[in-house]
Amino acid sequence: MSKNQFKGADYYNIDELLSDEQRMVRDAARQWVSKEVSPIIEEHCQKATFPKHLLKGLGEIGAFGPYIPQEYGGAGLDHISYGLIMQELERGDSGIRSTASVQSSLVMYPIYAYGSEEQRKKYLPKLATGEMMGCFGLTEPDHGSNPSGMVTNIKDKGDHYLLNGAKMWISNAPFADIAVVWAKNEEGRIKGLIVERGMTGFTTPETHGKWSLRASATGELVFDNVKVPKENLLPNKDGLGAPLGCLDSARYGIAWGAIGAAMDCYDSALRYSLERKQFDRPLASFQLQQKKLAEMITEITKAQLLVWRLGTLKNQGKATSAQISMAKRNNVNMALEIAREARQVHGAMGITGEYPIMRHMMNLESVITYEGTHDIHLLITGNDVTGISAFK
Ligand code: TGC
Ligand code: FAD
User: Fold this and answer.
1) What residue's CA is closest to ligand 2, atom 20?
2) Is the CB of 139 under 6 A from ligand 2?
3) Deepest of 40, 140, 142, 208, by most Cβ within 10 A of its Cβ?
4) Is 341 tagged catalytic?
5) What residue's CA is closest to ligand 1, atom 30?
6) Taking a C-beta distance cutoff of 8 angstroms, is the pair 111, 194 a contact?
7) For 229-249, what is each residue's pLDDT tens digit?
8) Rounded distance, CA 109 to CA 247, Å?
9) What domains sit in the chain, N to C, each tagged with a CATH number?
């Protein structure tokens, strides 16, 4: 089976809800993924290597900072366009979408939203082209779902801050040029800093042995008395709301991205079930297989409508954090369940790299954990509807 036969799913004519620009952006990203990602991604995943040569192309299709204004090198697009790019990238591989999510929403966004004008001008244009890459350090070995407990800290030393601590599970860390790092000051207030590769005492050991997101580079950030110049502090927002604000944007992109992985699994399962014969009939003729396919397209359609509405609210500045949590949780879970069902439709072939299913399924096991776990997002919804936090 050719890896480039992908056809997007659009059962409810959602294309009609998109503007010409949004469709154009989506189609350009789709073509780029078919040409550049699909032919090479399986091998990178098998070898657990990150396809670094794709960074330039990601910059060219506007995947780095799609909604950052053009004056800072971004593409100046709306949030539905951003979502559609994430959808197409994740159709290729969650790891490629991860790289773009982190660069856009966890590195460029905080520099744009919380940074000084000098910081915006210094970093954003290079980040937009992929000439400079970034990562985002929030999670620590002992503080994952509860980042407010972080122990990474800065001490004011007059002309610089002294940074100590460690971050874990950081996407892009092994090759990033800069890291947006969240640390507590002497008063226990969370601050954001831009830490640059090459600063003495800053290292980024790679995390090996992952069975998920194998084509994405993950690592630690270790800070041993790192002297960070004062001008590298993000001046315009602090407290836990600052990193969580970035997560809103990244989680929104993931809600779209997961649809890409689900569409790829559905597309492959539909094609395979029509081609593969058992008992002298195509698999697609059996009611049990039709049930799987019918439920897949139903869930994909519901997820598409959810993010389209969420994107519309986001464009109007009205999307709430809790609404974003609901979409991230629902859509990632939807994609993971579709990957599992699609794997069964492919029989034994489903466990091989001939088809994208197992790779998506394994990737989605990370996606359902990072950017807030499945359970944490449920508790965010629970908090929103009851007014009672289950965390405190
Ligand atoms: P809580 O008391 O609820 O809130 C503290 C302050 O933050 C504000 N806030 C938000 N602000 C913006 N956006 C949001 N989504 C926000 N949620 C809360 C809140 O208003 C408050 O502000 P203020 O001014 O009153 O202080 O905080 P809590 O300690 O009870 O924690 C709540 C909880 C558990 C929901 C939060 O900690 C959480 O979301 N935990 C999950 C952690 C997480 O998602 N980590 C992700 C790390 S990055 C990552 O995974 C990248 S993977 C990237 C990739 O490869 O694609
Ligand atoms: P824990 O917080 O220890 O949770 C373990 C389990 O307990 C989960 O099922 C969770 O839902 C449950 N749990 C926790 N608290 C509660 C509660 N109050 N009630 C009920 N259940 C609860 N982080 C970054 O900062 N930057 C990155 O770039 C980044 N990239 C990542 C890339 C990958 C491949 C992965 C796997 C993770 C990445 N992360 C990153 C970290 C990710 O955000 C965390 O793994 C995630 O937030 C969960 O934290 P944890 O793994 O420590 O799990």
Assistant:
1) 375
2) yes
3) 140
4) no
5) 391
6) yes
7) 999 999 999 999 999 999 999
8) 10
9) 14-133 (1.10.540.10), 135-232 (2.40.110.10), 241-386 (1.20.140.10)
